[in-house]
Amino acid sequence: MLKTVLISVSDKQKLDFLVSGLRRVNPKIKIISSGGTAKKIRELGFDVTDVSEYTGYPEMPDGLVKTLHPMIHGGLLGDISDDDQVSYMEEHGIEPIDLVVCNLYPFEEVVRDGADLEIARRNIDIGGPSMIRSAAKNFGRVCVVTDVDDYEKIIDELKENSGEISKKTRFQMSIKAFERVEYYNRAIKEFMQRVR
After folding, report:
1. pLDDT in tens, 153-186
2. Nearest to 106 by CA among 121, 124, 131, 133
3. CA angle, corner 159, sides to 99 and 7, nearest 5?
């Protein structure tokens, strides 16, 4: 049963559908979120735990550093079948995170609209790709969703499988996540090559 989810999205479309669907599957699900995403989830009427509350470490001004923290990445990468890792996680208050929903700062849109180098630089997402990669690496336990169009598929599967996401789906979502990060990095590289 899905117990803990981390949601950090630039594109907040269908957020109500996602969160209400997760709550229907497990009314006690813990939702961890940062910045504007947490604010939006609250506005929709749902309980949410701020990343800074969970980690005990405040967000850096302008949201520069939010999720780059061992409690986040330990929760994504931790192998809960390994006693040493479980002991470490328990000792440090790290909860296993079962699902990450993350889409990235809209770098491609910003540069498509003719942004200068400084504005483009500010729209390079660091924490998002890091979270996506950590979750995608641990597809044996964690599901990562990077595309708003996959929300319905994930909620349907959770409903049909008593709050579980199959390894096959986790693996497919992992591939899609790595593809998304690869595309994102390529867009940044190509923009920087054009303006140098």
Report:
1. 999 999 999 999 999 999 999 999 999 999 999 9
2. 124
3. 25
Residue 173 is encoded by which pair of tokens? 């979502």
Sheet order of strands, 30-33 included: 49-50, 30-33, 4-9, 99-103, 143-145
Would you give the distance in Å from CA 11 to the centre of its chain? Answer: 12
Q: Which long-range contacts (CB under 8 A, 24 or more apart) does 186-189 make?
A: 187/107, 187/108, 187/111, 188/107, 188/124
CA 98 from chain centre, in angstroms, equals 11
pTM of the model: 0.94
CA–CA–CA angle 112, 117, 122 (5° rounding): 90
**The pairing of beta strand 4-9 with beta strand 143-145:** unpaired
Tell me the two tokens of residue 132: 């996506």
Quick: pLDDT tens for 81-123. Answer: 999 999 999 999 999 999 999 999 889 888 887 878 998 998 8
- Which residues are registered as beta bridge partners of 32? 6, 49
Nearest to 66 by CA among 77, 89, 78, 50: 50
Q: Which of 128, 156, 159 is nearest to 144 (CA)?
A: 128
Domains and their CATH numbers in the chain: 4-195 (3.40.50.1380)
